[in-house]
Design a protein that fits this description.
By secondary structure, the chain is of the alpha/beta class. It has two domains: 3-63, no CATH class; 71-239, 3-Layer(aba) Sandwich (Rossmann fold). 57% of the residues lie in helices and 10% in strands. The chain contains eleven helices and five strands; from the N terminus they run H-H-H-H-H-E-H-E-H-H-E-H-E-H-E-H. It has helices at 3-12, 16-32, 36-63, 84-91, 94-97, 112-125, 135-148, 151-159, 176-188, 213-224, 237-249, and strands at residues 102-105, 130-134, 163-169, 194-199, 228-231. The chain has a five-stranded parallel beta sheet with strand order 2-3-4-1-5. Strand 3, helix 9 and strand 4 (194-199) form a beta-alpha-beta unit. Helix 9 (176-188) runs parallel beside helix 10 (213-224).
Length: 250
Amino acid sequence: MGSVQMKNMMEDLRLTGMLQSFERLKAEATRESWTSEELLDHLLQEEYEYREEQARGRRVKNSKLEKLPRLEDFDFTVKRNVTKTMIKELFSLKWLEQGRAMLLVGKTGIGKSFIAEALGHHACLRKKSVLFTSTSDLLENLQLARSSGTYLKWRARMAKPDVLILDDFGLRKLLAQEAHDFLDLLKARTGGRSTVFTTQVPLENWPELIEDPVIADAVIDRLKHTSVKFDLDGDTYREKEGAALDKLTN
């Protein structure tokens, strides 16, 4: 079989990684006197790496992450109670393997969303599905699903990702039906799936955020004993930037 036929077959079979590297590897095989098995091994490796790269790209795109930060880019020069040991622990993704929720609690600008998005990005690279959404968008889409009769499909879709990141939880109070649906979503997200919250409100104050006290107790009880909690405190990014600007003007 000639090279043209082989390339046509690769295209028909959608072996894009092989096809893109075929001429280069064929020339290298001739130059290095590879066996046919060695050439096939290299072609398969190229196809595997191509598909892995494409899959990573799809996971990142589908995650809806607003940014793609890396945990190693976390700024430790800002005075906060965040240590390299803590970041390394998060980076291990043990909390995800255990299917534990995570609460990142702290004031605006302390780095909650940065950590959450960096974790989401890292999880994507580790072959995990991720979805990032603000809590306000989540509630808006919940209401739309309720009004259009597609609530069960919406809940199934939100329950599916390995990691669901809910940014800025607690900016407004959850109404009774919203709270009920929210609890149902948490119940659906079991079996090795994790929900990450960024919030300014400590868990013990969540009854102020949930209209129905019974649902509030159920939500808090579900998160209190099994979630990973990080209370972030210290200077914010904006305070650091402000201090730097003050030095320039003084």
